[in-house]
Task: structure prediction
Amino acid sequence: MPEEPTATDFEISVRLALSWLLNPRTVALESLGEDAQRIVTAISARVPVPGLDSETQALIDAQQREAAEIDKAREIAAYNRAKERALDIEEQDQRGRVAQLVDALLAETLTTDALDDIEELTPVVDGLMYRGTVARINGKPGAMKSFVALDIAGSVGTGIPWAGREVVQGDVIYLVAEGAAGFKKRVRAWEQEHAGKMSGVYFLPRPIQVATVEWLVLEEACKRINPAMIIVDTQARATVGVEESSNERMSVIFNRIENLAKECNACVLLIHHTGHTGEHGRGASNVLGAVQTELLVKKEGKGADRVIVIRIDKTKDDDDGAEIRMLPRVVAVNGMTGMSGAQETSIVLALENSAVFGIPGLDPAVSAAVHMLDKHNAPTDLGRDRMRAWLTDRQISIGNSVLAPAISYRKRRDAPPRKPDPPETPPLDAAE
Result:
């Protein structure tokens, strides 16, 4: 007869456990082997065992807790092993990527000869302002910052030199966030002085907030227009609600402004106020690193001696501290009159060392009138009333307050030199 298969230790433990579960009162649970006890514990966790005394139930509960703790420990150990493996794999992947990045970084290094292949900044105003960068004009309220910005805008838009510097002609977007009502008069005065339209300059008479989605709309609009310059007048009006002195907040703001300059390949020119003390731009100091060019505008002198000083505080090619000095000239604006019927006036700027603008001893407004009369070859032998009629026939406007002194100056200037009196002949009796 064939021999019956011998039961394994595990099978014996299962039988003992089942036998005990059917009649737990026969023997104590501790008398079973460890394997049988574990089987009892596992089964009793899922199927209630009737007739257990409290001591045996407590023992089973303790074994169940221990088994749960062991399972949890195994689970944690397995998770940690998997995590360590994942970290090892990730580190291997990172090292592979790092190796690739090292190759790419080394490929970016340049020899001294290769430096010649780097593109130079494209100028907008030679030696002063460049495409793809941020520039800023600082000054106290009333320092005529906006007049300087408008003069730059007109020069860039039309392609005429500014303050003796060549410009690269291109469109200009001018955000007039402050004083929009008076801009028409300023533009007309500029056009009148330069005998032509301020072409290529587009005005948006309201602020656009840098921190809003509308700034992104501006960015996309400028990409279509491809301007050479975008002027924000003023920085404060375009950053309402942003703490100017916060380096953290202003870093975010200037990141957006820099992005506008780079994405549109334009010079973004900010008009900004100085603080109550000092001559630096108001607010956070860390933004200076984001500015390619920084100018300070201030007034010196009064009346006929008034000069607008534009100091170059930071730029790529000019020495820090260099100055541009300009004369503010009051001009009567053709075709614009006030409620009293008197002609409206505005201000245009001209280099201080320009002979046609700076007439020693004359008020800037009278100097401007003399220049206007000279430009149109006005006769010098006419009095005020006849000169007024002559100007009216040619649709030329000069304010009454400056016309008379301008006429007088031109008459004196152009009068023929006086012949010297002949020497006196001594009387005959004196010669004898």
